[in-house]
Amino acid sequence: MKPLTTSTGAPFSATIKIAVCAALLQVVGLPCLLAETTQFEAPVAEGERVVLLGEGLGDVLAASGWLDAVLVAAYPLYKPTFRSLAHPGDSILPAAPLLATPADRPVLPSDERFVPPDLNRLRFYGHEGEDVWLERTGGSLVLLFVGRNEALDPEFTPERFRRALMERILGLGEGRRVALATPTLVERLPDGPPPPAARVDLVAGVMRQVAEEGGHGFADIRRPAGAGTLWPSYNGVHPDADSCRLIALELACQWGWPEPSAENLSRLVALRELASEKNRFFVHRHRPLNSEYILGRRNRPFGVVDHPPEMEKLDRLCRELDEEMHRLVGGATKE
What we know:
Low-confidence stretches: 1-38, 96-125, 331-335
Helix content: 40-55%
CATH superfamily: SGNH hydrolase
Strand order of the largest sheet: 2-1-3-4-5
Order of helices and strands: HEHHEHEHHEHEHHHHH
Radius of gyration: 20 Å
Oligomer: single chain
Number of helices: 12
Mean pLDDT: 78
Number of strands: 5
Structural class: alpha/beta
């Protein structure tokens, strides 16, 4: 399989390959909106476990299933698998704990694995920490979505963000490859104005520089092709379903993933449905947050370790959907 290129041999991420765009428009209505950017590739190895980390944009993309679908369609013979550990509100910058007093906190088991390093990361509070899950999932390629929450920080400076980003990448440990994705520009936030575009531009510039220095993948998805535009959203913040499709394809193009075959392009919708269901099961496995776990019978301890049969079943369901996705694309590849 070859990286996507134009007829002149230029990286696919530098222009639009007409044949692929025509196929996308014909099959699923997905024009490939490609940034004019230097290529920072993030190729996928055979049998690779790809893990998504970071803030709400990554969480929304995982829930949509589109990024997972494009990944499997691009590498049908490699059989990659995808898990998302992203959660809304995540930030790589240190912050004061939001749960300030013991009375505010759920009851935790004594095992130190369940005490996250930063108590302001509510989505992991009472669950096993991110480092534990990185080891458990066996993630070897990490897709890191950061920048929007950091751009909102009143103490933001490019240098402070740079230090935090480099520390976060180093904290992933040796042997893991990293691909960075910028935040998207947004119209509004529920509780205030969005981060200024100029600050998001600073964030993207730092991320590009860190990627170049460290040899990491990088994708700039601040806006779709066309200056002054925003990705359409359903609430002013999170991309809508069509935008998730386009962003997933944009990421694949900028990260240098191969061109799927025409047959597998036609299977993207079916792949997305399977991926969305699998990722929903994995959220229940990774960080169940319903009232039964928080206020009901299952909050002592609060978390996932109290119910091994249920967790094993969710693991099995995720594996079965991975296999179904691989079967769906297994008969077609692009040489």
